[in-house]
């Protein structure tokens, strides 16, 4: 009776003990497997990079470079000649090439300070398996050129393209204004008053042809238009501060200026209840019209005066003005012959009408 009880009691104790010991044993097996496969596919594979070069872990850069040069000369595939009694890894040309690649890999690993730190850390902490993979491939796949340099070069290239594009648009605007009678006559009068046209037609030893005189007069007219007319909007004279590079550099200043301006606006008009000035009124009108600053600045002065007279900064007045503009646009379109033809075409034919032809 005691023996069966003892056997039953022992079996009952051994069973729970095995259940308790199983997780630690499995974890130990997994860690042992990870530690055994620690350097598989990383750096020098299953070989120690220091042993490959024949140096210690305390070796300096000069000693590592000297060992690499000796082994590289020895195992270079083009210069390798097996020596009698050579039992090293490079006994055949194929094995010599493999040995040369291994030596080069070891040198590439140990010559860089950061890579060497990662490798030494891997040797000291073999249990951090996945961390070693991350550090190895993050350095190997990292771009060779600094990302900051790439961004800086890209921004500079875009800024240069902007500058020349804006200058081209500005020159086209000046050339067009030089053909408009209103501005051309005014520019010619100014040129006559200043005696610039007489200088262009002066005759001397170097007599100019008619084409040269005409080109010179055209340049004089364009220069006067440039100096007397302030072009706004998309064809305005390019400014250095408007380029992307300077906009990025001045972004903190613009942000601080906007915060200060917004706080003053809240304090003066929302808290103290001051009346809007002309600049503030035009700003509210521009925001109501959903126009950019360059678009609003390109409007004529008499248009802005009309906005101020009608007090369009007040929301109710602006809604009335907007409705009037819409009604006026409808009347213009109703009386426009081209719009009438378009409506007839849409009604009779239109792009979505299906027609079947009977053969």
Automatic annotation (TrEMBL):
<protein>
    <recommendedName>
        <fullName>DnaJ homolog subfamily C member 25</fullName>
    </recommendedName>
</protein>
<dbReference type="GO" id="GO:0006457">
    <property type="term" value="P:protein folding"/>
</dbReference>
<keyword id="KW-0812">Transmembrane</keyword>
<dbReference type="InterPro" id="IPR036869">
    <property type="entry name" value="J_dom_sf"/>
</dbReference>
<feature type="transmembrane region" description="Helical">
    <location>
        <begin position="244"/>
        <end position="263"/>
    </location>
</feature>
<feature type="domain" description="J">
    <location>
        <begin position="48"/>
        <end position="123"/>
    </location>
</feature>
<dbReference type="InterPro" id="IPR001623">
    <property type="entry name" value="DnaJ_domain"/>
</dbReference>
<comment type="similarity">
    <text>Belongs to the DNAJC25 family.</text>
</comment>
<dbReference type="InterPro" id="IPR044632">
    <property type="entry name" value="DNAJC25-like"/>
</dbReference>
<dbReference type="Pfam" id="PF00226">
    <property type="entry name" value="DnaJ"/>
</dbReference>
<keyword id="KW-0143">Chaperone</keyword>
<keyword id="KW-1133">Transmembrane helix</keyword>
<feature type="transmembrane region" description="Helical">
    <location>
        <begin position="149"/>
        <end position="167"/>
    </location>
</feature>
<dbReference type="GO" id="GO:0005789">
    <property type="term" value="C:endoplasmic reticulum membrane"/>
</dbReference>
<feature type="transmembrane region" description="Helical">
    <location>
        <begin position="12"/>
        <end position="32"/>
    </location>
</feature>
<keyword id="KW-0472">Membrane</keyword>
